[in-house]
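retry 2 of 3: previous attempt timed out while embedding magnesium ion. Reduced batch size to 1 and resubmitted. Inputs unchanged:
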Amino acid sequence: MKKISILGSTGSIGTQTLEVVKNNGDIQVTALAAGSNIALLEQQIRRFRPALACVWDEGKAAELKLAVADLDIKIVSGMDGLIQAAADTAADIVVTAVVGMIGIRPTMAAMEAGRDIALANKETLVAAGHLIMPLAKKKGVRILPVDSEHSAIFQCIQGVQRVSEETDRQIHKILLTASGGPFRGRTREQMKDIQPEDALRHPNWSMGRKITIDSSTMVNKGLEVMEARWLFGVNMDQIQVVVQPKSIIHSMVEFEDGAVMAQLGTPDMKLPIQYALYYPERRYLPGERLDFWKLGRIEFEKPDFDNFPALSLAYEAGTAGGSLPAVFNAANEYAVSRFLDREISYLVITDMIRAAMSRHKIIENPSLEQILETEAETYEFLKNQYQTEHSFD
Ligand code: NDP
Ligand code: MG
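retry 2 succeeded.
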């Protein structure tokens, strides 16, 4: 039986991962980790019987411990607990589905312990890809993409032989598709009064709050460009974003000879999740199938870099490299949480990313400690800037 550990089990990806586990019935869950939702976590524990569960919040962890006192389970908390959930159980695969750079340390701990990674937590790869990819090679572990576009790309390159370690799979270009989000077609002027509830409505996907905001600003696509660059060993200028509003084509690869391979399907995250868990096997997946007569046509557009400047900033961060992608990501995490708390207006999210990037002195090849320091400095800078400058209001 395959064994998995899920970091972020109560979230959108986490719960869908458990649905896949339930539908198949031949995966054992060894550990579950959540932030604070102990009501749902308790239900999951009773249903899937992991040996260990982690709750970030110490007080909630103590509450959960009492609630499941009748079971044989270890309850842990905080970063140490998250690392235990990632590395200390007998999992073959760790599903990383927490939000944000908080995933870096547990992901690396899981890899150090020889676990394969089913990676949803893209922020980790964006900020620390230069540490994660060599570690994967050194430890001989696989990083299996869960993000739908990256799973699509991964599916498109199956069966393509590497000529050598250097010439990576003969990819000429990655065509990363984007829905364009709920505000596609709007000007910046038309976006200035957007409220959290407007941005939290995505046309095609139902996802966690942070990634839904990121999809609306195109930050998500920017993060995905950087994610793709690490996963598939290509340069930033080999990745082209293609807007395809219905999210039917999940991404494409153009090879050296001009052939383009695409992966299509209805938008359902259970497909990439299941593919990552059972790779290279394909299993039956219940759900709606593509109906080309109903679909009729598939439309394409160029991304709107002028009205969605976060995408240009992401290319800038990824091209410069070093610690700049960590700044892009940290500034966005900070800005999105302030926006969701209604403390800054919508367009300030991108202004904050730009401001944090332009004052940062790039550290080449930053260590884990330097990345975490960069994150803290970025938060500090934006906090001070916001208090003193009301241009952010
Ligand atoms: P959600 O917000 O729905 O879920 C986040 C999960 O992480 C929850 O289980 C939450 O617990 C848990 N969590 C939060 N903070 C901590 C912490 N400090 N320690 C332990 N657990 C914590 O997010 P999504 O599922 O939407 O996204 C997860 C990741 O996957 C993100 O990186 C996202 O970009 C990526 N992704 C998501 C997609 C989607 O369709 N949702 C698609 C592609 C990528 P609690 O419930 O207790 O707060
Ligand atoms: Mg995606």
